[in-house]
Amino acid sequence: MADDHRLHRLETADLEIGATEAVQRHISRHVVATKPVSQAKLDFEHRRPRWLREMAAEATGVFFYVYPGIAATASFILNKEDAAFGSLLQVGFAYAIGIAFAIITCASTSGGHFNPAITVCFAVWQGFPWRKVPYYIFAQIFGAFMAGLMLMGQYHEQLAAYSAATVAAGEGNVFNGGAASVLCTFPGATQNNLGFLFLIEWFVDSYIGIIIWSALDPANPFVGPTTAPFVIGLAYAAMIWGFADISISTNLARDLGTRLVAAIFYGGEAFSYKNYSWISILINVPATLFATAYYEMLMRDSLQKIGKGHATHEHGEEGLALHLTKSGIPMEKGTTNVVEHM
To answer: Where are the beta strands (DSSP E) in 35-171?
Structure first.
């Protein structure tokens, strides 16, 4: 009988006795109900301007993305002699996780653009209202600017000491590895070919743009809503790990917002150094437009998107049925079942 009892326990799906006792106690606890939503709160939220909510979400999202990234960069640059305090691996993960947190926290309010290039691409390809583009971009730049100011306040003593040391050594503040490079990108001492820097930024931004557009494609079976923030974040991290040592920007708002802070604290050379700033600020938009055009024209499967219920034909079911008839795709039960035949 004892052997039969042990065998029976092995065949069940019950949790065995042990640390699982805590699970049983937690399950039996009563959770206090939250207080009811007041009418005053509902009235306030109803009166709150939508444009203000969206701008606040975009600014907050960019802050959440830039703040940990430049903080990790500061730790890396200020502690060159002690690798325990930072590395490019740490910087890449800081940006990646920051982007994921930004999307998780703010995307449900504003759509989660956090990049002027992405905002423009949504307006071009997905019907995002053009009238919203200017204030989205302003909010994104403002979020990066506030992240830069916050960092300068928190790292003031360390940056002041580091700045004094580099100035005394005759290097100044504005160079790759200087105090200003904590905030924004500058070319290295041997990087004087602007065409080379242009191509690096173009291909890095295009790479990131294609991954973003793919991750946001509702017909993509490999990326779900819960994984998309981390996929997008890791795309940025991969480019940082591969190309940060030869200068990349990846985001107009991130670069311009923090570069303005660098100019306030370290002078106008933050914009004039090696005539590089126009590349770091401006290339992101056309490169991302190129990337999304590549995806839209060569890789997008709109029929599958319609079939999965994420879009409709502009002429309704009749227009879709006509297209399927012309294309020779069989229809069963309904036109939305077409994906099953692909």
So the answer is: none
Letter for the amino acid at 186?
Answer: F
Answer yes or no: are the C-beta atoms of 295 and 213 closer than 8 Å. yes
Domains in the chain, number = 2
Q: Which tokens sit at 234?
A: 């890791």
pLDDT per residue as tens digits for the range 159-187: 999 999 999 999 999 999 999 999 999 99
Helix (H, G, I), strand (E, B), or coil: what is residue 135?
helix
Pair of tokens at residue 255: 């670069």
* Residue 36, domain member (yes or no): no
Q: What is the pLDDT of residues 326-337, one digit of tens each?
A: 666 655 444 334
Task: Write out the residue range of the structural domain in which residue 81 sits.
Answer: 50-298
Statement to judge: residues 192 and 314 lie in one domain? no
The whole-angstrom separation of Cα 338 and Cα 321 is: 10
Smallest Cα–Cα separation from 117: which of 140, 143, 151, 88?
A: 140
Q: What is the pTM of this model?
A: 0.84
DSSP letters along 143-184, please? HHHHHHHHHHHHTHHHHHHHHHHHHHTT--SSSTTSGGGGTS
Verify that 194 and 332 share a domain, yes or no. no
Query: Do 238 and 325 fall within a single domain?
Result: no
Structure letter (DSSP) for residue 334: B
Look at the block and give the residue holding tokens 């590895």. 177
Cβ-contact 137, 116 below 8 angstroms: yes
Residue 77 parent element (H or E): helix 50-78
Cα–Cα distance for residue pair 310/261, rounded to 1 Å: 42
Q: By three-state DSSP, how is residue 9 classified?
A: helix
Phi first, then psi: what are they for 308, rounded to 5°? Answer: -85, 0
**Residue 342 to residue 338: CA distance in whole angstroms:** 7
To 5 degrees, how large is the angle CA 223–CA 227–CA 232? 85
